[in-house]
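not sure who needs this but someone in the group chat was asking about Methyltransferase type 12 from Streptomyces caeruleatus so here u go. i didnt clean anything up, its just raw.
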Amino acid sequence: MAVNLVTGVTAKHGTVVDFGAGPGLFLHALGEARPDVTLLGYDAYMEPTYPEVKYVASMEGIAAGSVDVLTAFEVCEHLYADELDALLDDALRILRPNGALVISVPIMCGLAIVPKVSNWMIRSRSLKSEYTPTEVLKAMVGMRVSRPENPRTTHKGFDFRQLREVVEGRFSIDATHMSPMPNMPWWLSSQYFMICRPKRNSASNSAVCA
């Protein structure tokens, strides 16, 4: 789904930057689907493993108004509030006026919480979970669960609806998609995608935001 969504919003010979690119698997797959696209990755912790993918040392090194699509797949749930603000500021600065910010995050409420918590317990070979039984029930019915102070290694308590509210402060959300149940209510899926466009006033004021 990520490759299809980005392919659909990327202009011919466009530039795509993947924030939190890891070893570059997504950009590699995108390059196979769209050989015309320039691929740039940024990751504070990992090096690229695919020779066709170039990494930038920092987001500040990307020229203003030079990017067609900025992606942030499965990373926003691990950012502190100030880091998320910095990412959105960078997006407004580097995106072209008609560019797109494409985000995906896990859905940690609704029915998906049960298999996700169960899977975590199986993988860790433990009967203990970050979630108490009460918190699992709260998450199942869409109630918010408190987040740990450190979001780096956990999804607990992440609420995509709160992220959407923050993003909507600076971007217009053109489209949303759910996986693996795209035509069903969000509480039946486990992943949430947003295609976001800079608001006109935000784009013009990006220098102030940065």
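also Strands lie at 15-19, 38-42, 54-55, 67-73, 95-106, 171-179, 191-198. if thats useful
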